[in-house]
Write a structure and sequence with these properties.
The protein is built from eight helices and seven strands. With about 250 residues, it is of the alpha/beta class.
Length: about 250
């Protein structure tokens, strides 16, 4: 429980799925948590209440990370509540499954605004406000190396995140801030199952060397490690948490 005691973490997209699991894991290690959400206040508050049962403090903050003004508000409210920021987990993101011939300008702008712009400007705020020896954990995806049809717009955003992570690790290293990226494989969440048949889901599971889908806890455990002092010598890295799928 003491590993992250006294630390303050922002987890974007923390009302459900992987983000919720990360928020709960960091809280179980002692961190105070800002649960960011875009629209589902009920789920966000449920996450907050579950965190409080672990004996730490949490607050839900609504902010649409595709808008810079909203990102600034998220950081403002974190500083207002806790006085500092030690950990930023840029988990919020969306996917659009379409062949390139069907991707519209609106689709392209939406996915880049949330996935890339949101991550980039949250990192900017962290660079300005994060405590010395802070931790930034960004999110990519193992799909960047899987050549999956209909994923072109999505992997374009995730490739951008991987490259910005490498550069920011170098930029922020003098402040002791580490910047890493986690790339999950297929993970059993509501979002992953949406629009997929059981047959398709089973195919994804069998592609992994370990023969199953990832679980949200598999991802959360790695994020918690990267947020800890044990990972102090790891920065600029892409950790593929995927059960050996690629």
């Amino acid at each position: 429980m003491s590993q992250l005691t006294g630390k303050v973490a922002i987890v974007t997209g923390a009302s459900r799925g992987i983000g919720r699991a990360i928020a709960l894991k960091l809280a179980s290690n002692g961190a105070s948590i800002i649960v960011n959400y875009a629209g589902n206040s009920a789920k966000a508050q449920e996450t907050v209440e579950d965190i409080k049962k672990l004996g730490v403090t949490a607050h839900a903050v609504q902010a649409d990370v595709s808008k810079i003004s909203e990102i600034n508000k998220l950081f403002d409210q974190t500083i207002e509540q806790f006085g500092k920021i030690d950990i930023l987990v840029n988990n919020a993101g969306i996917n659009i499954y379409k062949p390139i011939t069907e991707v519209t300008e609106e689709d392209f702008d939406k996915i880049f605004d949330i996935n890339v712009k949101g991550t980039y400007f949250a990192c900017q705020q962290a660079a300005l406000r994060m405590a010395e020896s802070g931790r930034i954990i960004n999110f990519s995806s193992t799909t960047t190396v899987m050549m999956l049809p209909t994923y072109s717009a999505y992997v374009a955003t995730k490739g951008a995140i991987e490259q910005m992570t490498r550069v920011l690790a170098k930029e922020l290293g003098s402040k002791g801030i580490t910047v890493n990226v986690v790339s999950p494989g297929p993970t059993d969440t509501e979002l992953f199952r949406e629009g997929k048949s059981e047959e398709a889901i089973n195919r994804f599971a069998q592609m992994a060397a370990l023969g199953r889908l990832g679980k949200v806890q598999d991802i959360a455990d790695v994020v918690a490690f990267l947020a800890s002092d044990e990972a102090r010598w790891i920065t600029g890295q892409n950790i593929r948490v995927n059960g050996g799928i690629a």
